[in-house]
Task: structure prediction
Amino acid sequence: MLDSAPRVVEGLVDGGVRLVAHVPDTNLDRLIRLCEETPELQCVALAREEEGVGICTGAYLGGSLGALIMQNAGFLNSCNGLVTTAIQHEIPLLLLIWYAGDLGDSSFQRLGEATEPVLRGLGIRYYVLREPDEARRDVGRAARLAVAAQRPIACLLTRDIMEDPE
Amino acid sequence: MKRYECMTAVVEALADALVVTTNGRAGVDWLTVSPPAYHDRLWRMRTMGLCSSVALGLALTQPRLQVVAFDGDGSILMNASSLATVGRYRPPNLLHVVFDNGCYEASGGLITHTGAAQAAGRQVDLAGMAAAAGYPAVATVRTVEEFERAFTQALRERVCTFLHALVEVGSVSGRAHGLDEVENKYRFLQAVRALGA
Result:
């Protein structure tokens, strides 16, 4: 079965990410477990996604680049923190967002519809990852772009690159 | 007691600490009562609620430095889930102070849930919430002397602590003369490096 989770983790490490804050989704379960097993990554489980914007900001101030792994519903939960902390203070931050409601997902169409327009509205550059063979490279590049730009950068993780539990 | 009186009592104890203040007047109070040498080690939040989370991220990534959050009742209630996140990781170098004035002071003074409870002769037990969420040490204080004692004890014993300070409304007179958000970031990063952590 297709499984890009190890490649995404390698991309995080390649890109210099040292702290991962996360909230699970069925399709992120394996990725999060792999992050927790990766010695280079300090992991923090969250109760709500916006906490992760704060924790990753504190981590960056402490010298560690942060990534926030969550579903797109959680991305919507974190919008104020993203704008008034991460963007306003120019904090590098990698967002790895499970793209519920994307092609192949019949459960969360409204969430899928809202995701990219909200990212655009916040001025967050984002990349939709669909090629498993490029997952490692793209995640690493996105993390480095976040540092270069001193901004949050998002990768939308699609069914094409993540394990399909069905 | 007022928030800035509590802060004044512990200035000397924070000569090498990283301080995070919630939005509103807490940052102005700390800038006013602390010497200029401290100001690059102050991170002033603009986002209501995330003070506790930024402090947690700092404490986890800089375990040798003391991190102090000066939070508020409205702010912690807005990010109450962070209590359980701190309670799970419990970094020993994190001291989380919540100044509970019972109202949204910075935006005009409408009462918060803690203030509404007090007005009804009840209490929202923020320290009890923190203890139940896993903080290994909590205290509620009502006087500056109690505050100073509990505060210095948390630093001395180096245990993750939630300090609930019941304060009156009121801030220092004066204006925010702090840095803009981006200059705050670069100076704070330099200050962390200078501390050699």
